Amino acid sequence: MNPRPTCSSDVSLIRDAVSERVGFIFYAATMAISGFIIAFTTSWKVALVVLGATPVLVLTMGFVSYSLSYYADKGQRMYPQAGGIAQEVQSFDFRAAFPCPPLFNSLLLYRA
């Protein structure tokens, strides 16, 4: 078995993913810098307030991103357990739970 095709395809996938992310990061950084330049030339007081609030926004987004990935991972780990419970419920015979409803009605009639 030749591992070379697998390695080259893996390298190709990694290269594509990294190049896409680097491009997006470059695009976002350029947009943020140009936005701050325009904001400082237009209204420097408002831009200064936004620049002061930026660290809080970045930390909040980091926390949200971390908690989202944590709970998504936790949900993925719960799928096998939930599947086992669902399979157990589907295999349960409900006729055994309610064996004979007319029997209960007759008991109520002859109760006196």
Domains (count): 2
Instruction: Extract low-pLDDT stretches.
Output: none
**What's the rounded overall pLDDT mean?**
79
Gyration radius (Cα, Å) is: 31 Å
- String of helices and strands: HHH
3D shape:
elongated
Proportion of residues in β-strands = under 5%
Strand segment tally: 0
Number of helical stretches of at least 4 residues: 3
Structural class: mainly alpha
Distance between the termini: 83 Å
| Main sheet characteristics | none
Helix content: over 70%
Structure characterization notes:
This protein has 112 residues and is an all-alpha fold. It has two domains: 1-42; 44-112, no CATH class. Helix content is 86%, strand content 0%. The protein is built from three helices and no strands. The chain has helices at 4-42, 44-91, 101-109. Helix 1 runs antiparallel to helix 2. The N and C termini lie far apart (83 Å). The relative contact order is 0.03.
